[in-house]
Inverse folding.
């Protein structure tokens, strides 16, 4: 689809396409044209022009999401283009904006908002090189540190030290960039570029380092906290975190796998869980909670009932919920507000079929995303599933990988899915009849790829044909066998793999040492 451009935007493209001419002429450009020229430069990947536009930015704020989003001059949203050339030019231009020798009275820029950048799987930029959230964290931290060193060593205009720009960013910290980010946060007061962390993600960090850096981020500003892979946070550490640090604006919380494990609960653990529930109730903005792969059997009510604000997103995938947990969710005040729900890894038909459909009916008017992976949904349940999903007219995403459904059942389900007007993304399982007879579900990782690939391709074509014939080519249907795309994991997978190998090696050494002692 070709996006229409206004004459103003076409003129802006023509202006910035000659980088040398554009850079020389910026001094004569009206201030209100800078946003238009920035988007045109970003579209054409004119790194040098982007740098100079930011260096000479004449306005009070610089908001990437708004600048690259849909505008009257050019409706295409470019905020999902994490082009390395453009973003690096942007950030180095910001550094040079501080160092620019023009009068400090000319420098109006006070707020830079980088939070509107979206990391997606498919990139359309010509350079094909992206700068993800981790790399943006790394570069901004380095530029802040370099800027301070330069200001201390060079003879700068005294007005340079009066420059103060708040840079709003979603930080992503791992062991590899930890020291650099810590240094930038420690020196925030004396640096003209002041990192303001709005969202924080942590992977591959020791608890000690996580607790240290989270205090430096100014938690009072934090809206989103993700503690994900290889941060060994358990329930008592979470209680300690909430006791020591307040998160008054926190809207979204993601906890690592196995934060909770009720199978080894003591009376003291029950009290700890109660305390965590109370602390979360003080987070009056909290509407998104993700705690996958914890064992929460029979404790959902204790954890969620204290909350005063209804949840809009809940991920309790693989949490071993029982009927009492599902009954609480179905009858709680959260049910009518859930826009995103993940119940993967629960045998819904066997454990609580009617209760699940009660929950679905309560959230049907607002539900946008539903994930039911590895839920033992079979052919006999498809008609009931269709009845349950029919009122979900706002559903945009439906993921149900890993369920034992036949090709015929999938075709029946897809014919119905065409009727959901807002649907954009479907992740469907490899049909059961593509696997060898006798395959057991959930399918283990070793067997997940052992299916008839040619037959699968034929079925996938038929399913896409159903969408096409219903004029629903706006719906993307796929089978990501090893989970949906995760930009953060994709960007840091080398570090993640190295950490896992190191952990495995250490475990093996401990086992060998223990075995030798026994011998």
């Amino acid at each position: 689809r070709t996006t229409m451009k206004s004459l103003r935007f076409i003129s802006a493209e023509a202006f910035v396409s000659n980088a040398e001419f554009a850079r020389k002429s910026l001094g004569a450009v009206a201030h209100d044209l800078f946003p238009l020229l920035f988007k045109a430069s970003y579209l054409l990947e004119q790194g040098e022009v982007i740098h100079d536009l930011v260096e000479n930015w004449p306005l009070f704020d610089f908001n990437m999401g708004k600048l690259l989003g849909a505008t009257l001059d050019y409706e295409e949203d470019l905020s999902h283009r994490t082009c390395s050339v453009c973003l690096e030019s942007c950030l180095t231009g910001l550094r040079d904006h501080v160092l620019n020798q023009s009068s400090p009275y000319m420098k109006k820029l006070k707020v830079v908002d980088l939070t509107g950048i979206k990391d997606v799987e498919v990139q359309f930029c010509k350079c094909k090189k992206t700068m993800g959230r981790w790399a943006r964290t790394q570069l901004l931290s380095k530029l802040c540190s370099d800027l301070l060193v330069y200001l201390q060593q060079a003879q700068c205009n005294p007005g340079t030290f009066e420059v103060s720009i708040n840079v709003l960013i979603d930080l992503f910290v791992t062991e590899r960039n930890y020291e650099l980010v810590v240094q930038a946060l420690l020196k925030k007061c004396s640096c003209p570029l002041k990192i303001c962390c709005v969202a924080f993600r942590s992977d591959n960090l020791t608890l000690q380092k996580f607790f240290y850096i989270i205090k430096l981020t100014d938690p009072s500003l934090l809206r989103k906290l993700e503690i994900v892979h290889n941060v060994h946070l358990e329930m008592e550490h979470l209680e300690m975190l909430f006791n020591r640090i307040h998160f008054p604006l926190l809207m979204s919380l993601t906890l690592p796998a196995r934060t909770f494990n009720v199978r080894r609960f003591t009376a003291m653990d029950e009290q700890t869980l109660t305390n965590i529930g109370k602390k979360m109730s003080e987070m009056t903005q909290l509407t998104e909670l993700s705690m996958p792969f914890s064992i929460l059997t029979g404790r959902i009510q204790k954890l969620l009932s204290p909350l005063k604000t209804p949840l809009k997103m809940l991920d309790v995938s693989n949490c071993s919920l029982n009927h009492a947990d599902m009954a609480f969710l179905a009858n709680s005040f959260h049910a009518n507000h859930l826009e995103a729900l993940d119940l993967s890894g629960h045998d819904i038909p066997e454990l609580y079929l009617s209760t699940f459909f009660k929950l679905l009916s309560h959230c049907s008017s607002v539900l946008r995303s539903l994930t039911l992976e590895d839920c033992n949904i079979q052919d006999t349940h498809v008609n009931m599933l269709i009845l349950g999903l029919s009122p979900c007219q706002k559903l945009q995403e439906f993921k149900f990988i890993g369920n034992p459904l036949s090709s015929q059942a999938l075709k029946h389900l897809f014919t119905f899915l065409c009727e959901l007007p807002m649907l954009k993304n479907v992740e469907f399982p490899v049909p059961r009849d593509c696997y060898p007879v006798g395959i057991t579900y959930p399918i283990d990782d070793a067997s997940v790829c052992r299916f008839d690939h040619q037959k699968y391709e034929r079925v996938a074509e038929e399913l896409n044909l159903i969408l096409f014939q219903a004029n629903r080519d706006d719906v993307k249907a796929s089978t990501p066998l090893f989970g949906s795309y995760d930009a953060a994991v994709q960007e840091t997978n080398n570090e993640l793999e190295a950490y896992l190998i190191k952990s495995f090696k250490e475990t093996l050494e401990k086992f060998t040492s223990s075995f030798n002692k026994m011998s």
